[in-house]
Amino acid sequence: MGKVIAIDGPSGAGKSTIAKMLAERLGFTYLDTGALYRGVALLFLERGITPEDDDRALEVTLSHTEIRFEQGKVILDGRDVSSEIRTPEVGHYSSVFSARRVVRDFLLDVQREASFAHNLVAEGRDTATVVFPDAYRKFYMDASMEERVGRRHRQLGEMGIRATRAEAEKDVRERDERDQGRDIAPLTKAKDAIMIETTGKNIEQILDLLLEAVRV
After folding, report:
1. Which of 37, 151, 175, 196 fits as disulfide partner to 11, beta carbons 3.0 to 4.6 Å?
2. Which residues touch 153 (CB under 8 Å, ≥6 apart)?
3. pLDDT tens digits, residue range 168-197?
């Protein structure tokens, strides 16, 4: 098993950008766990699976599915769906379906398998608490609600999605509620994780904080 650096935190904290850069600086492989959940949500939407379906329906669908995160891309049954998973609809359902144990169990193995042959920087909601509890380094990134909403608003704009700041805030708050309130693997800071507050800091400042901690 390779060395793992696990980064958790809420939506808009800056995890994805920092995790990618940290992996590049260290020569590690980047693992976007959230993208895998989005891939599963896309699969369910394409197959007509809804949150009202029972676990058996989800399990049967997943049993015939192969998904992996490879070189920054989500590969679903041999198809690159990296662009398709970035819609607000898929984002919403990825958060909803992530509360289902059958989905989390399925992706738990996928995520852990990624560390067998590579050193990883993994970011998500439960990478330090559940997926990689023995990670070499653990971080929890957070920022003020105002800053997180601003980042989400800009992100939607960069994706070509027209949304007001109020809509972006609604999206962030709803994600927080689902991520922190679910019964299975809720978003929480691991006891041994290093807190990284990103409010008011630029990317290089945040990256320097993580690099300093990693190299200790």
Report:
1. 175
2. 163, 165, 168
3. 999 899 989 988 988 888 999 999 999 999
